[in-house]
Design a protein that fits this description.
single chain; about 180 residues; mainly alpha; two-stranded antiparallel sheet; 6 helices; elongated
Length: about 180
């Protein structure tokens, strides 16, 4: 008696190999990682004021806090209503070419932790940048904002705009999830 066995294992393996190649070639995973990383970094750097080691970047000086909050000696305050006592404006410039002109009010909190943002221009310019070969990176579309980020890192002598350990763990989780999704299709 002869038993004959046939298998389609080579076809199944080729299908799985093609799925993995699709994953490697597509920039879906890279874009998902970069987009998620960008969101996490913006919160860490521009809201929580944490560096890449997940420690506080630093504290602003009292002089800079006046600029940030608009609490100058000639700032006007609200005298009635529910906002009584809060700043109405940032006053006017008292020296220089803008003397007498209103100072800008940045509407930032009085929290002195460094968050690398005053006008929000730099944090709004930070984005996912497409690179060659379906790759993506996180960066600035404006070279002035890139230079600001380098200045902040040099001034505080620490890595700030690099992924933290928590963010790297999240990257690994995304890679595993997307890989499993493709394999189990």
């Amino acid at each position: 008696m002869t038993i004959s066995v046939t298998s389609n294992i080579s076809e199944v393996m080729q299908i799985e190999i093609n799925r993995m190649l699709t994953l490697a070639q597509a920039n879906q995973m890279v874009r998902t990682i970069a987009t998620t990383e960008l969101a996490l970094m913006k919160v860490r750097v521009h809201e929580q004021g944490m560096n890449s080691a997940e420690q506080q970047i630093g504290l602003y000086t009292p002089g800079y806090m006046k600029l940030r909050t608009g609490s100058y000696g000639n700032s006007q305050t609200v005298t009635r209503g529910p906002n009584k006592g809060s700043l109405k404006d940032a006053g006017v410039f008292t020296k220089g070419k803008d003397k007498g002109k209103p100072r800008p009010k940045y509407h930032r909190s009085s929290d002195p932790k460094v968050v690398a943002s005053l006008t929000r221009q730099m944090e709004n310019d930070e984005k996912v940048i497409p690179l060659e070969d379906n790759a993506c990176g996180i960066g600035f579309s404006n070279s002035a904002n890139y230079n600001k980020s380098q200045w902040v890192e040099a001034t505080y002598q620490q890595k700030i705009f690099s992924p933290s350990a928590t963010e790297e763990t999240e990257i690994q989780r995304i890679v595993e999830q997307l890989t499993n999704d493709i394999i189990t299709k």
